[in-house]
Amino acid sequence: MSVPAPRVLFDLAGAEEDRRFSPYCWRTRMALAHKGLDVEARPWRFTDKEAIAFAGARTVPVLADGDRAIADSWAIALYLEEAYPDRPSLFGGAGAIGPTHLLNAWTDRVMVAGIAPLIIADIHACLHEKDRAYFRESREKRLGGSLESVMAGRETRVEQFRKSLDPLRVALKDRPFLGGAAPLYADYIPFAALQWARCTSDFALLAADDTLQPWFDRLLDAHGGLARRARI
After folding, report:
1. Helix (H, G, I), strand (E, B), or coil: what is residue 88?
2. Cα-flanking dihedrals φ and ψ of residue 21, to 5°?
3. How many CA atoms within 13 Å lie on the side-chain side of 100?
4. Taking Cα atoms as reference points, which of 85, 44, 90 lies closest to residue 63?
5. Which of 173, 180, 182, 225 is the 20 to 30 Å CA partner of 48?
6. pLDDT tens across 115-151, in order?
7. Is the peptide bond before 61 cis (omega within 30 degrees of 0)?
8. Is residue 210 classed as helix, strand or coil in its secondary structure?
């Protein structure tokens, strides 16, 4: 199978083609916008495995850039930084790549893992009909219970999740972004986890007075309001 051209991002979609909700795809969408690169964000669904076989991938994001195919959001960020050095840096310098990779791992293990049980049945309700059986079977096996039972009691359990975000609050106490005056990829990583929930669920992960809310709002409005315009 040939690689699509010129630049295509295979981006997880729900029942509606414009409901794009993957936290990993949002990292990449924000990174591409940061670099000022045009891209066709092509809808992909969990059962569309063959559509990304050209990249040797089974999950998205997958970026096809000319004759290059890159899978995985972190690998895509590194590729964009190397391939487009004349565009704004995603990391603010080579020395920040290691700490940003640490933040990437923290977000996966604390934020993404913490959010999933709070919204998992809501995600299922947003999916295309062809994806629902696969999603339910795979996630219930992973989480050890029905989607509904895993999500039960979230009104109480969300407090533990909110507490887990204290390191992020400390880092943002005296600056508008983790990147300083302007966002960097370090901001897009945790932002994308919260955007995942925003695009799939009405459940409030952050309290109304959470000090992270202004940071989140600034990122919603970044790059011409790319994330704010997302279907919710």
Report:
1. coil
2. -135, -10
3. 24
4. 44
5. 225
6. 999 999 999 999 999 999 999 999 999 999 999 999 9
7. yes
8. coil
**pTM of the predicted model as reported, rounded to 2 decimal places:** 0.96
Pairs from 18-23 (Cβ < 8 Å, separation ≥ 24): 18/231, 19/126, 19/199, 19/200, 19/231, 20/199, 20/230, 20/231, 21/123, 21/126, 21/195, 21/196, 21/199, 21/200, 22/60, 22/61, 22/196, 23/112, 23/192, 23/193, 23/195, 23/196
What are the structure tokens assigned to 93, written together? 């310098």
Instruction: Give bridge partners of residue 71 from the DSSP assignment.
Output: 62
Hey, what are 140's tokens? 């219930």
Residues 69, 153: Cα–Cα separation, whole Å: 42
Say if strands 68-71 and 62-65 run parallel, antiparallel, or are unpaired. Answer: antiparallel
**Whole-number Å distance between alpha carbons of 52 and 62:** 7
Confidence (pLDDT) at 6: 80
